[in-house]
Amino acid sequence: MRRTLKSLQNPGVQIACDEDLVDLDYADDIVLVFVGENRALEFLDEEQVIPSFGMHFAPTKYGHQAEQELATRTLRIQNKRFYLDVKQNRRGRFVKITEAGSGGQKSRILMSIAVALEMQEKVSKLSDIYSQLPSHNPQCLAQDGRLASDTIVRDSRRYYLDLKENERGRFLRLAMLTMGVRDQIAIPAQGMIELRNALADLTHEYAGDVENDAFSDLPESKVLFVGNKTFYFDVGSNRYGVYLRISEVRANVRSSVTIPEQHCGRFRDIISELSAKMSEQKVSNGCPPMNGDNEEKVPVAKLAEKPKAVADAPAASEPIAVA
């Protein structure tokens, strides 16, 4: 039976393949669709893949289901419906919040169980701020419409919580930034307590074993700012093991390399060796130390630890198998 897949990286490209040559797997918070032995296509989540296969669950050759639903809650706030689902895949459990508009359009964000626990606390705080605000006045809006904000950063995802207002009223905007892709939902402000309670209900039932978290904690990410470039250092994991991804972001250009955990030490040694040789060469040529050669004297390249993880991590053009 022939099926057609669309590549996330090249939306205009469609590939027809035999069903028995296709497999689903997970790496770096994306879904990989394997076609044959070496060809792999990237998708953000199963919902982008499964409609192409005409099935709700897509079994893999490893005997796992692509996704299993554990629990769901439905919220009706004004003219919108919100679905909160606890799901499980081969990497663990996670929460998906979906906004269904009156026109049938849908927006969704994903989060780990640990993020859902933190999310409910921050939503509760924003709800307290909302309850203390004066009545909404369309003629006197806050600058940029922003009333209060908070951020959650975990692994390769960043979440923005913005309590905002416009002429129509006040609302909470939840945005998720991952792999260079931004997804967001908007919840009427009066529904924040319902959202918090639903999250608390689900996490109370399914957060008992946090190591089952689909996006388990890894070492804190780092970021290096150099001129108009930004370098992100993210530790991730997939079924092949732990790896370090180094991403360079400059304007709208993104690129990255992935180093398996067992080779990180050698990678570090090579960089240290080359850095030392470049410094020695400058001194032997009579050149003064350049910015960054002596960080104690001229600290222009700032190596900073992110609040808790990385923001705007770019997607690689092709998934890299970490052996």
UniProtKB/TrEMBL annotation:
By its UniProt entry, which Gene3D superfamilies does this protein fall under? 3.10.450.700, 3.30.2450.30
The UniProt similarity line reads:
Belongs to the PUR DNA-binding protein family.
Record's superkingdom? Eukaryota
GO CC list: nucleus
Species annotation: Clonorchis sinensis (Chinese liver fluke)
> What's one Pfam family the UniProt record gives for this protein?
PurA
Assigned keywords, A-Z? DNA-binding
GO MF: DNA-binding transcription factor activity, RNA polymerase II-specific; purine-rich negative regulatory element binding; RNA polymerase II transcription regulatory region sequence-specific DNA binding
Q: Does the keyword DNA-binding apply?
A: yes
Write the protein's name.
Transcriptional activator protein Pur-beta
